[in-house]
Write a structure and sequence with these properties.
heterodimer, A: 321 residues, 5-stranded mixed sheet, B: 847 residues, two-stranded antiparallel sheet, 24 helices, 4 strands
Chain lengths: 321, 847
């Protein structure tokens, strides 16, 4: 693969370290805990290094005082018992809200791990799926959202370090992960559990909108696709190539369920689960030979399509905002 | 002797110890006879050697070979990850390589390496001529080497497993891993399990039963304590992975849905079974290395270990607590809060015994005067690295932090700090420290320093940045990463560090080639001035005579010990029975009980190992007929090797020195065979216990899908038969005076077990429940299959007894065969009862 591949999406950057850069109330206590633990680690390491240095190089009298069972009792037993007990209480106090089922009225989004992308279903108040999207989770800022994590193939793990810790998606089970972003913005996420083949290339972006913007976004996403007549040739390529067998575009005949829903694919930030920025060029490249971009993914390459067909089809998809 | 006399454990009069060292010269020719008896086979027959001086060195060598091979895989990975979006390794190749790196390091390097250290060192440390079952350890070694190399070669054909070293289903099910790659892992691990358990039996019996007289448990060297706890942990932990791999292979090959959620299974069952083994595994690796540390630190600081008893208690506590921490690998799976809290607490508690050991070492260093020689440097490096890994371990034990760190490079850093600090550095210290014991030349101090500093610097350069890489969001097991995620620099530094580390290992290899000269007529000897018996001058027969031990550091405290031992002034200065032999002593006070006649080199265990490896490998490539044939040949070879056991000698008692007479034949709890059988049955019982856990776990996931069991008559009939079988097997050993009667009783017991099994199996089939139907079918038939395996072994043993009876080898003067067969049959009966009870009475009762 070329090393000059386009850079990753802004929200997926590693600096400042997202695990130490909380953006909501679920991640914030984890961040304080991390710093507390790092301080503890540094202090204990310093004690060990000092004790070892004294044991090696201190004058004989000092070493004699260190060289007895008393050191083991004090530094090896009493001290750790105190430190560890304190830490344990702190840690457990942060785990109490574990595996709480969704509360009535709580906003729910079902995220299903797929090999190797994310199916995102927005649930209405009754728990039924209102519409589906892929590889992006849109939430209103300042409000907790319960993510129902599921999988139908292998185990995946959703990790949005700035919003919360990770939680696994396990076939036959449903885990609840709560996230909240205090401010509108984009937050990177990644699959953390090895799920085979291109596991490395399975990212996701969480987009937090101002509440009013979120409603607008939601209304637009819930609506079926509308394409201008100018894109009819592209749509024809899409239909002829059989894309609808795997992809759904609501409002058209395409109703496949195996791959991501493409009803509003043009509005997404990335392609291939965070692999490429989304524009007409990358769309065309992806359709033509996604295997070169993300080897092992489930979408076959389409070498039969001509350059013009690729341009038309990608223009059509790009127009689906 | 100091202190008040302790009551005798066996009736042996410990006042007899006062007769040693004996006076006067030993008869001429005694030493020559000893040398002739223990001399190694020549030319190509070297392959048949069983003496631990050879097998131990081969064993360590093979483990280090796999260390280097898996290390090369690590370098390939670090090359791929040095820069973003590189194409050095294709995705599939990378996934196979990271899986093999973990698997080979854990199963083919770490566990065998520490086991090998035990095989090499324990007889010498304990004052035994050899381990109690030298052929078993030779068999374990060959099975491991042949199987391990074949397993590794799967990489060259692109057939290596690719699901990560913990092989989580459903990714490793046939749906998502249709190739035989995953089977290579599941079956490839099979012979590692066998050789690990064989080694553990050897070590437990060796430490408990073949110590030098007077080496009571309070004088047991700290390394032997560590090995004892290590072996006990293998016995408890490995059955879980044996069961897990068997179940997954049954699911893959036959479609039994243990882990398939669509048919009532649960992928979480694998995680529980795997980590119930997998976490203790870490301490299994660490404990022997810690034992080596606690031996080397006093030697290089030239002072006894401070807090010896605290350290021994720390081993025991580690072993105990480590079985309560497995779920800390599963904090992100959505476990309920209560169990998360419990496992978090246990995971933090397990750091206490580690802290005890660290400060015991520091206190020892303070009370002595540390020498900065090669072993000394590795010991200090180990201490620092291990503490750092331990501290990040405490961090990861904090559940909310683990939600962030889990499955990221932070954990990769943590586990490498723990394993390299807790195992690799101590192993290198051990190699530098004990090489003079087996080699004519010690390793070079100068090259040793280079090796240490390169490994130490490379280690931190490679793994320290990974803590940050993880917090920067990089998950583990990624074959590449996109540019522009800020992960470039830490990854590049890690890659450079890996190569610096490798340079250290390379210098060590050069040192080995230049200076390691084992199997010669002389050894460099006690260059580090250690205090243990392993530093007594020795030949292939171990020490000339077996001393009476009165101190924890006999060479430091017992005056003239080396001189008297070499002059043959202690136990067993010659070979009174004219063959290989060692003293068997009692487990607590090490009072002499009898003389154990030991086997001589032969090819049977080598063939048995070849066919055992062949069985698993042929099974993997689905050559079923050839595999069964290979398995049958392996069994024949083992039986052939057993055939020469259990033969009483003409002399019923012999003089083992200073006029002390000991019997040359033993059975029952004083014999090594009895102990080995009991330990083996504990393994069987643990597999059964984990099966029961799996049954309850699967039922709790899907109670509504459970069908009623077959009718009560079959339960009554089968239970009645197995109880009768147990009674017959138990009574048979009382009837050894009547050889035909006890043979007939043994055969009848085996027949009853087979009948009960048949009734149980056919009544389940009568209900229409098939193993493929649902999770209940799968687990019921799995428990049946385990019982069927034992019934088959019981049948083979009963036929073996019959054959020996036909040869006249069953009789009142040799009760051991009948007794051990009886133990096995009685256990099999008990296992049948548990299986019947669980599958039919729980839950729902008779319906």
């Amino acid at each position: 693969m070329p090393t000059d591949a386009p850079p990753a999406h802004e929200s997926l950057k590693g600096w400042p370290p997202p695990a130490l850069d909380p953006a909501g109330p679920f991640a914030a206590p984890l961040n304080s805990l991390t710093w507390g633990l790092l301080a503890m680690t540094a202090a204990v390491l310093a004690i060990v290094v000092i004790a070892l240095t004294l044991a090696l190089f201190a004058p004989r009298a000092w070493r004699k005082r260190l060289g007895g069972e008393r050191l083991v009792w004090i530094a090896g037993i009493a001290f750790p018992v105190v430190v560890l007990s304190a830490l344990l209480i702190w840690g457990l106090s942060l785990t109490h809200h574990l595996s709480e089922p969704p509360r009535p009225g709580e906003m729910r989004i079902r995220v299903t791990g797929e090999m190797w992308w994310w199916r995102v279903g927005y649930l209405d108040a009754s728990g039924a799926e209102a519409f589906q999207d892929a590889n992006e989770i849109h939430i209103p800022a300042g409000r907790p959202v319960a993510l129902e994590l599921e999988s139908t193939d292998v185990i995946h793990s959703l990790w949005i370090p700035r919003l919360n810790g990770k939680l696994d998606m396990i076939p036959g089970r449903r885990n609840i992960l709560r996230i909240q972003a205090d401010k509108p913005g984009e937050y990177g996420a990644q699959c953390a559990e090895f799920c085979g083949g291109p596991h490395a290339l399975m990212a996701l972006v969480v987009v937090a909108h101002a509440p009013a913007d979120y409603e607008i976004w939601k209304a637009r996403q819930a609506a079926p696709a509308v394409a201008a007549p100018a894109y009819d040739t592209g749509k024809a390529v899409f239909d002829r190539a059989g894309c609808g067998a795997c992809h759904a575009i609501r409002g058209t005949d395409a109703n496949g369920l195996a791959g991501p829903d493409l009803t509003h694919v043009g509005s997404r930030r990335t392609l291939g689960a965070g692999v490429l920025p989304n524009n007409q060029g990358t769309l065309a490249g992806w359709i033509g030979d996604s295997q070169a971009i993300k080897p092992g993914n489930r979408m076959p390459a389409y070498p039969v399509l001509t350059g013009k067909e690729l341009r038309d089809a990608s223009a059509y998809l790009e127009s689906l905002k | 002797m100091s202190g008040p006399p302790t009551p005798s454990e066996t009736g042996f009069d410990t006042a007899l110890y006062e007769r040693f060292p004996t006076k006067g010269r030993r008869p001429k020719g005694e030493l020559d006879q000893l040398e002739a008896i223990w001399c190694a086979p020549r030319r190509w027959e070297w392959i048949t050697v069983i003496n631990n001086n050879y097998v131990g060195v081969y064993y360590v060598g093979a483990a280090m070979l796999f260390f280097v091979l898996a290390g090369v895989l690590a370098l390939l990975m670090r090359t791929q990850l040095a820069l973003p979006m590189q194409g050095v390794l294709a995705q599939e190749t990378y996934n196979q390589i990271f899986t093999m790196h973990g698997t080979v390091m854990m199963f083919l390097f770490a566990v065998p390496a520490v086991e090998a250290l035990g095989v090499l060192l324990l007889p010498q440390m304990l004052g035994a001529r050899d381990l109690p079952f030298p052929r078993l350890s030779a068999y374990a070694f060959w099975a491991y080497l042949i199987g391990g190399l074949a397993f590794f070669c799967s990489l060259f054909f692109g057939l290596a497993p690719n699901g990560g070293w913990f092989m989580y289903p459903p990714l490793t099910s046939t749906t998502y891993s249709p190739g035989i790659n995953a089977d290579f892992w599941l079956l490839g691990i099979g012979f590692i399990e066998i050789s690990a358990i064989a080694g553990a039996i050897e070590i437990i019996v060796g430490v408990l039963k073949t110590r030098a007289p007077g080496m009571t448990l309070d004088k047991l060297p700290v390394f032997a304590w560590a090995m004892l706890v290590f072996a006990g942990m293998i016995i408890i932990a490995f059955p879980s992975v044996i069961l897990a791999t068997t179940l997954l292979e049954l699911e893959r090959a036959l479609g039994w849905p243990f882990f398939d959620a669509a048919r009532g299974g649960d992928p979480m069952l694998w995680q529980h079974l795997f980590w119930f083994f997998g976490h203790p595994e870490v301490y299994i690796i660490f404990l022997p290395a810690a034992g080596a540390m606690s031996t080397i630190v006093p030697a290089v600081a030239r002072t006894p270990l401070v807090g010896h008893w605290l350290v021994v208690l720390a081993f025991l506590a580690t072993g105990f607590i480590s079985f309560g921490v497995w779920a800390h690998h599963m904090f992100t799976t959505g476990l309920p809060g209560v169990s998360v809290g419990m496992f978090s607490a246990a995971s933090m508690a397990v750091s206490l015994p580690a802290g005890v050991q660290v400060f015991a070492w520091i206190a020892t260093v303070a009370s002595g005067r540390m020498k900065f020689n090669a072993p000394g440097l590795f010991v200090l490096g180990s201490l620092l690295i291990f503490v750092m890994g331990g501290l990040t371990g405490v961090m990861a034990a904090m559940v909310p932090f683990d939600w962030q760190a889990h499955d990221t490079y932070f954990i990769v850093a943590h586990l490498h700090y723990v394993l390299i600090g807790g195992m690799v550095f101590p192993l290198f210290a051990a190699i530098y420290y004990w090489t003079p014991m087996v080699s004519a030349r010690p390793l070079s101090e100068r090259l040793g320093r280079w090796t240490f500093w390169l490994m130490f610097a490379g280690m931190h350069l490679a793994f320290l940045p990974m803590h940050l890489t993880g917090l920067m969001g990089m998950p583990r097991r990624v074959y590449t990463y996109a540019a522009g995620r800020d992960w470039e620099w830490p990854n590049l530094i890690s890659s450079i560090g890996a190569f610096v580390f490798a340079a250290g290992v390379l210098i060590w290899l050069i040192d080995m080639i230049r200076n390691f000269r084992p199997f010669g007529s002389s050894e460099a000897g006690n260059v580090y001035d250690g205090g243990g018996l392993e530093w007594l001058p020795a030949g292939l027969y171990s020490t000339r005579s077996i001393p009476v031990v009165t101190s924890l550091y006999p060479l430091w405290d017992q005056k003239n010990l080396a001189r008297d031992v070499t002059a043959g002034r202690y136990f067993l200065p010659g070979a009174p029975t004219g063959g290989r032999e060692t003293l068997v002593t009692s487990p607590v006070n090490a009072e002499p009980q009898h003389l154990l006649r030991m086997p001589v080199p032969s090819g049977w265990h080598v063939w048995a190992a070849v066919f055992t490896a062949g069985f698993f490998l042929l099974l993997t490539v689905q050559a079923y007929a050839a595999s069964v044939l290979s398995g049958a040949l392996a069994i024949l070879c083992v039986l052939r090797w057993c055939w020469f056991l259990d033969h009483p000698l003409p002399q019923q008692t012999v003089d083992v020195g200073a006029g002390i007479k000991l019997p040359t034949y033993a059975s029952g709890p004083s014999s090594t065979g009895w102990w080995a059988m009991v330990v083996t049955l504990v393994v069987g019982g643990m597999v059964l216990a984990m099966s029961v856990f799996s049954y309850v776990f699967l039922w709790s996931r899907n109670p509504d899908a459970w069908r009623p069991p077959p009718g009560a008559w079959s339960l009554a009939f089968a239970s009645g038969s197995v109880i009768l079988a147990a009674v017959l097997a138990w009574l048979a050993r009382r009837q050894v005076a009547r050889p035909w009667l006890c043979t007939a009783m043994t055969l009848a017991a085996a027949g009853l077990l087979a009948m009960a099994f048949w009734v149980d199996l056919s009544s389940w089939r009568g209900t229409g429940l098939e193993p493929q139907t649902n999770a209940q079918g799968a687990i019921v038939y799995a428990i049946l299959a385990w019982q069927g395996f034992f019934v088959a072994v019981a049948a083979i043993m009963a036929l073996y007894v019959l054959l020996r009876r036909l040869y006249g080898y069953i009789g009142p003067n040799r009760p051991a065969t009948i007794e051990l067969t009886g133990l096995f049959l009685a256990y099999t009966a008990g296992q049948a009862l548990v299986g019947l009870g669980v599958t039919r009475l729980f839950p729902g009762g008779l319906s």
